[in-house]
Amino acid sequence: MKLMALLMLAQAVIAATPxxxxxxxLDQDAYPEAARDAGVEGxxxxxxxxxxxxxxxxxxxxxxxxxxxxxxxxxxxxxxxNWKFLPAxxxxxxxxxGTVHYAIAFRISRRCPPPDGQTVxxxx
Length: 124
Description:
By secondary structure, the chain is mostly beta strands. It is built from 2 helices and 10 strands. It has helices at residues 33-38, 71-82; strands at 2-4, 20-23, 25-27, 42-50, 56-63, 84-86, 88-89, 95-96, 98-107, 119-123. The strands form 4 sheets. Strands 5-4-9-10 form a 4-stranded mixed sheet, covered by helices on one side. Residues 1-14 have low confidence and may be disordered.
């Protein structure tokens, strides 16, 4: 079963129109196995750099880098492997690089942080 979450994009720094999601979905299998087996939950927030072709070219963790079991690295890897974007556009409509902000809440229990429009919850 695919889990879809409420999504809202942060303003891109250099674009009139920020990158737009084409696909931002995670399967419940996305929960990192080592963290799941240890019963670890955690929230990872990150900024994604999207190039002028809509490809994720960078991931900077802004919250949760200290989470155990490499949850931060897993969150970035999951975004790179599974999420697709339309590129940002400047005021003339030209495709340009941009940045978006997301968070993944890894949860074993069926509780998710209050909706903030930027968090994708992954449940077992």
